[in-house]
Design a protein that fits this description.
- With about 250 residues, the protein is of the alpha/beta class.
- The protein has helices spanning about 15-30, 45-60, 90-100, 120-135, 160-170, 200-205, 210-215, 220-225, 225-235, and strands at about 5-10, 35-40, 65-70, 105-110, 150-155, 190-195, 235-240.
- It has a seven-stranded mixed sheet with strand order 3-2-1-4-5-7-6, with helices on both faces.
- β1 (about 5-10), α1 (about 15-30) and β2 (about 35-40) form a beta-alpha-beta unit.
- α1 (about 15-30) packs parallel to α2 and α1 packs across α6 (about 200-205).
- The relative contact order is 0.17.
- Bound molecules: zinc ion.
- Zinc ion (ZN) binds near residues 12 and 121.
Length: about 250
């Protein structure tokens, strides 16, 4: 694992812990280099401080904040545009710069639905996809560092069966008929990572985001779960692997 690099790109402080915290902690313990880019919230805000503590717990280095505003919280970056409103090329370039600087083997971000539909998450997915593809081309963003090709991109996703089986425990009721549920069909998941041994670390990193817990953000729903159900949810992280620049293949493989 020595030298292997994992770069996780997220929308908000707390997502690194919620969606990829187990993966980051596991790979850091196994000797990999790990880092997190966070697209919204500016340095000097309470949540930037919480991010710093979370990254410390996960062993993922210093915050790499792009400093744009959260779609729904102008106070996240006073005077800065919303990440959603920044010209696409500018946003892609900011992520390209981090990819070229950190030189990850693997990049992590959310799937096309942003794991559960938050517009900032969906946007981060699109920007990261474009940045991973652009980072290797010396013709693109030539002033933003030496080209670098990550080997693969892993998109954090939730299998539909997990959503359905935990819905009642998390929300206290069954989904409404016709309600749009998060998650992807189970057979779209390519990688199920057992992070059970790192569940406590992930939970501790989530708790570093104290202001989110205090305002009753969605992760507080997990606090109310029976310990066994919570450990089960925290102990696994799911991904869809896309992109591959490994050994040449002579055919498309399913
Ligand atoms: Zn988020």
């Amino acid at each position: 694992m020595a030298g292997f690099g994992v770069l996780s790109v997220h929308a908000h402080p707390d997502d690194e812990a919620i969606w990829t915290g187990g993966t980051l902690a596991r790979y850091a313990d196994e000797g990999a280099r790990t880092a997190v880019v966070t697209c919204t919230w500016a340095e000097g805000t309470v949540r930037a401080g919480e991010l710093e503590r979370s990254l410390d717990i996960l062993g993922a280095g210093e915050p790499r904040l792009l400093g744009y505003a959260d779609a729904r919280k102008p106070e996240s970056a006073p005077g800065a545009p919303r990440f959603l409103d920044v010209p696409f090329d500018e946003a892609v370039g900011r992520v390209v710069r981090h990819i070229r600087e950190f030189r990850p083997d693997v990049v992590l971000t959310y799937d096309g639905y942003g794991a559960y539909g938050h517009p900032d998450h969906v946007h981060v997915h699109r920007v990261t996809l474009a940045a991973v593809e652009a980072a290797g081309y010396d013709q693109l963003y030539p002033d933003l560092g030496e080209p670098w090709w990550p080997r693969a991109l892993y998109l954090a996703a939730i299998p539909r069966s997990v959503v359905v089986s935990h819905w009642r425990a998390v929300f206290g009721a069954d989904p409404e008929p016709g309600q749009t549920l998060p998650g992807v069909p189970d057979d779209r998941i390519t990688t199920t990572l057992d992070v059970g041994r790192w569940g406590e670390r992930k939970w501790a990193a989530m708790h570093a985001h104290q202001s989110e817990l205090e305002r009753g953000a969605s992760m507080t729903l997990l606090t109310g779960l029976p310990e066994q159900a919570r450990a089960q949810l925290l102990g696994t992280e799911w991904y869809r692997r896309v992109g591959h620049t490994g050994p040449a293949e002579t055919a498309l493989t399913a």
